[in-house]
Specification:
Elements: H1 13-38, H2 46-50, H3 52-56, H4 64-92, H5 96-101, H6 105-116, E1 130-131, H7 135-160, H8 165-184, E2 187-188, H9 191-211, H10 217-244, H11 258-267, E3 272-282, H12 286-293, H13 305-309, E4 314-320, E5 327-332, E6 335-345, E7 349-356, E8 379-390, E9 396-406, H14 411-448
């Protein structure tokens, strides 16, 4: 029995014309609707058509939940396009590499368009593998998946410095497809067994990255949920290609497109702005809050889960001088941020811009040096501003605003993680200032009695 939501079967050109463009353009329609709902003009630029989800990050009020839900929907769309495109390629007897490319936003419009016009390429139908287990093919599939992971990181991250859909989505998809295809090409195993092999290949490949000092444990753990889901989908496609494909060597041809995709992503890196806004009411006057804000003593509370995860967290800030132009040294767990004061209004406002950034994280690794470029330059902080607002009850509302730039795709996957870390770090700073200001105000009142 053939199920409509499996990779098994074929799809005629007419059905593909009706379904695939509708599914593809649903991403653009959802992003356009979000802009209209927020009262902003739709950004009808080339980037909107090629990378619709990246355009969503231009909304100034984008929150973590919306970003996460939008990315989850995009994965469903990608899975649907992969399914439709693979079955369309099966009808033509070729074009499996186009079916793989249909899940990558930067090139998916071109891939879907070519599949729309793809004619019959062959009528040769391969023999369906018999049921059973071929240990040699299973081992070959796992080893091939491991090799793809290592080569992809060497080419994309180390050589091109590209962290995007190619590395985090296309690579695990092809790992799954290659492992599933090779493991099923002569003997057909179940989808569950195929998925276990795919996860085995991904796990061994990830361990190899750590042992070769190409990545740290933290980055791998953060990318694992996305990579695991996509790899299992790829494994299902590879299994179907081995069992029902016409020309059984064609599904593996899509591997040749990975370096070109990495190069394209390196030429078009994401620049996703993140604006944050946090506030806390303090039972102390602005003078006490200002003193606590400009104090150089370390933050008393521990970093919590941010520190455990290896992400950078603040330790203390030290002012060198006073007024606009003064230097502020922000000490973080990963190094020192050199900052320049841009606004100085005692008891009202302090703002500074970051001149020199420390690493955004410290990778967990058995080695002192990890060749992972993403710890520098892929998440930057621009200007940070603290506003002090006197309250009617004699207290102060302290508001922290900051701008950040995220340079990793898929941005809607990484942005909620970045916002979560920013929120925890900023609230830790605000609560520390709150505690110091309240303590100072209490000491002042006691000394005045």
């Amino acid at each position: 029995m053939r199920y409509p939501l499996s990779f098994q079967g074929e799809l005629s050109p007419f059905a593909y014309v009706l379904l695939a463009p509708t599914l593809l353009l649903s991403q653009h329609a959802a992003v356009a609707a979000a802009f209209v709902r927020e009262g902003f003009p739709i950004p009808l630029s080339p980037s909107f058509w090629l990378l619709p989800l990246r355009s969503l990050t231009l909304l100034p009020n984008l929150d973590m939940t919306t970003a996460a839900v939008s990315f989850a929907i995009s994965l469903v769309v990608a899975w649907g396009l992969a399914l439709l495109s693979f079955r369309r390629a099966s009808w033509s007897g070729g074009g499996y590499f186009l079916a793989a490319l249909a899940i990558v936003p930067m090139v998916q419009i071109a891939a879907v368009t070519l599949l729309l016009i793809l004619p019959h390429l062959s009528t040769e139908i391969g023999d369906e593998p018999e049921a059973g287990v071929d240990v040699r093919d299973m081992m070959q599939g796992v080893l091939a998946g491991v090799a793809i992971i290592i080569l992809a990181v060497l080419i994309s991250a180390v050589s091109f410095g590209a962290y995007g859909w190619g590395l985090f989505v296309m690579t695990p998809f092809l790992v799954g497809m290659t492992t599933g295809f090779l493991a099923n090409r002569r003997r057909s195993i179940s989808f569950g067994q195929t998925s276990m092999l795919v996860m085995g290949a991904a796990g061994i490949g990830s361990l190899a990255l750590i042992l070769l000092a190409l990545e740290g444990m933290l980055c791998i753990l953060m990318a694992a949920p996305l990579g695991g889901i996509v790899a299992i989908v790829g494994g299902g496609l590879g299994r179907a290609a081995a069992r029902f494909g016409r020309k059984k060597d064609q599904p593996l041809m899509s591997l040749a497109f990975l370096p070109a995709l990495f190069a394209l992503e390196a030429a078009m890196p994401p620049v996703a702005p993140i604006a944050t806004h946090e506030a806390v009411d303090i039972a102390a006057p602005p003078s006490a809050v200002w003193h606590a804000l400009t104090d150089s003593s370390p933050i008393a509370s521990g970093p919590g889960i941010v520190g455990v995860s290896g992400l950078a967290y603040p330790i203390r800030g030290r002012l060198v001088g006073a007024g606009v132009g003064a230097v502020r040294l922000g000490e973080f767990s990963t190094g020192v941020a050199r900052e320049r004061v841009t606004q100085w209004q005692p008891e009202r406002r302090l703002a500074f811009t970051v001149v020199e950034q420390p690493p955004a994280m410290e990778e967990m690794s058995p080695y002192r040096k990890v060749h992972a470029p993403h710890v520098r330059g892929y998440f930057d902080t621009g200007e940070t501003r603290f506003d002090l607002e006197p309250l009617a009850n004699g207290g102060t509302r302290l508001t922290a605003r900051a701008t950040h730039i995220l340079k990793m795709d898929p941005v809607l996957y990484w942005e909620p993680v970045a916002r979560w870390a920013i929120h925890l770090n900023v609230m830790r700073v605000l609560r520390d200032i709150q505690a110091k200001a309240v303590a100072e105000d209490s000491d002042h009142h006691r000394s005045g009695v």
